[in-house]
Each structure stands twice: as structure tokens, then as C-alpha cells.
Sequence to fold (375 residues):
Amino acid sequence: MATSYRYLLADLVTNQILAELPLTGVNFGQQLNAAGTMTGHLLVSGVNSTGLNVLNGSIPGRTAIYIDRNGQLVWGGVLWQREYSSADQLVKLTAREFLSYFERRRITNGTGTAYGALAYTGIDQLQIAQSLVSNAMGAAYGNIGLLYNQDPLSTATSGVTLSRVYYNYEVKTVFNAISDLSKQSNGFDFEISVYYDGGGNPAKSFNTYYPRSGVMYSATNPNAPVFELGGNIAEYNYLEDGSKAINQIYALGAGSNEGKLINIANDSVKLTAGWGLLEDQANYSDITDPTVLLGLATGQITAVSYPPITLKIVAPPYVNPTFGSYEVGDEVRVRILDSFFPNGYDAIFRIIGLTVAPGEDGPERITLTVTTGTY
Fold:
């Protein structure tokens, strides 16, 4: 079956469809616990830009964009940038997934002053995350129509209870607060997914997953995704990044000067084995609980104490495993035998990023970003 793409633009607040544009040069991506980016352009010469509602239907910061692939929504986000060049008559659009909206929203308790706080005591971490989103959505003019945990694989509670105080004067972003919650040693994954509702209208849902999203690889599963060079890997890029390795971290919590809360975590196994000391710091100014702070520090060390290995795999979308049978968060098996790995390489990776080039003048191009790190 031929692959068909549609690009729908809607009002960010009302979700009313404003335009459907024949974009070309499109590239869109998804990232684990972060906002992926979409770019594309429209050649306005030779099209009825008034009839397509190009100017009023693509206002940055006010417009949402949804990508439909063969009748299913596969991407959605906020249009943040529009650029027009009169020389080539191209309108260039840049959008980021809906999580990027919460990078622009700040935590307050609704008083509208620098005093006061939004406090949680002994609340499940996933409920805190949802409450932070709900609080932002409840502010005047702040509702973009999110539902919660519409993905049947998502989880609403984790059994991990936390206490948090978000002071108004910190004006911390909602995204950063949720990201910090997710990064502790027993944290979680989160996303905003897009889909068609029962009425055929684009919809979006804030989903949380504990202990993680995606499907773990199992050798006993005949449908488990396997990527192999010479088969369904067209090309790959292999990166080991020692600049991101940390074996001792200083987690800085609430307070200032001598009263600042500090916790230190290290990977004693690596240090004893002969690694040099690699230090970094992480700031969590809203954390007042030393146990919570230690959990965050431990989680960071677990993720990056060894130089993370990242593979970028270019895979044909029509060869098993086909595009749509895997998603960000899933584990996959990768096999490589070539000049760099003459004895063969066989490892389990986790998909942390996914980029798609629809290829209006050629075949789709799928690039998976996978890592052996803990995320």
C-alpha cells in the first residue's frame, strides 16, 4: 500500500482545524521523555495561499500541527517558528511535540504573586506529574485540551510516594519539574501522544508509564524486533561519548550558602576498577528531602557512569520490523558484522529517538536512535 501523509494545522487552544497544507521536505522526530522536532516547507508559488489559509492558519505559538500517516496520527506538536524567503518563495515551518508547550508554562499555586507554594505530601509520583499538568491547564487561557492516560499501556500510579514543594518565586517550568521527578532512581517515563477520538477529531493525551514505557526485548518472542546490518539496517552510526560519562555527581537541593542541601553519589565499582574521577553537578532547587535528592543523584550515576553508547540506525520502513510495529521506549536487538566489528556485535538497545522523512519524492527514511544506557 502506498504511504500517504497529511499535515493538519489547528488552533492550539480550541483544536479547531485551520488548514491542511501540502508540505514538502518534511522531517519529524520523537524523543523519550522530551519533545521531538518537526520541520517542513511550503512552496507558495503556484498554490492558492489564501484558499489554503496559509497566513492565518500557521501562526507560531498559536497553532498546533498534526501529522497523519495512512489515516493514523503519528506526530503532534506546537508550531513555534515560521520563516518566509521571498527569493525562493518558501515558507519554512518548525514545530516541536506538545511537551514543548510545558517548557513555556510555569508552576504557581494560582495566587498570581511571588509568595505561596504548590505542595504535595506523600503523593504518588505519577499523580504529582498529572497534577502539575492539570494545574497548568487550569490557569486562565492555559487549557490546550489534554486528556490523561488514554494509552491503554500507560499507568496512573506507581506506588512510589514523594513530597514536593514548588515555591512561586522559583517559577520553575512544568516540564522541568516533571522531568526531575522522572529521573530519580525509581522514576518513570512520560509523553503526550496524539490520536483520533471517536468523532474523528485530533486529540492528545498526557501519559505516564511506570517503571518505563515500551516493550522489553525477549528472545522467546518471535515478533521481537531485530535489526541486522546487511538485512534491515541500511547504514548506521556508532558513538561512544566519554564527555557525558560521570562517576561522581553532586546533587544540589534547596537552600543557599552553608545551608544548601547537597548529596553526593558515585559509582564505586568503576572507581575501584581504575577509572579516573569524572565529576558533575545537578541542580534541584525545589528538593528539600535528602533521601529524594540521593535518589536523583543515584539515578543520574546509574544512567551515565559508563560512556553511553548510541547508535543511529537507518532502517527501511517496509521491511520487518515495519515502521509502526515499534515505538520510542521499546527494546530492540542489533546485530552488526563488518570491518569495525569483525567478530560481530550483538546487543540489546532501547529506542530513545525516532526520526521520519516521509520522502514525497522517494521512499520514507526511518532513523532510529538507540542506546544501551539507562533512561
About this structure: The first strand starts at residue 5 and ends at 11. DSSP finds four helices and 21 strands in the chain.
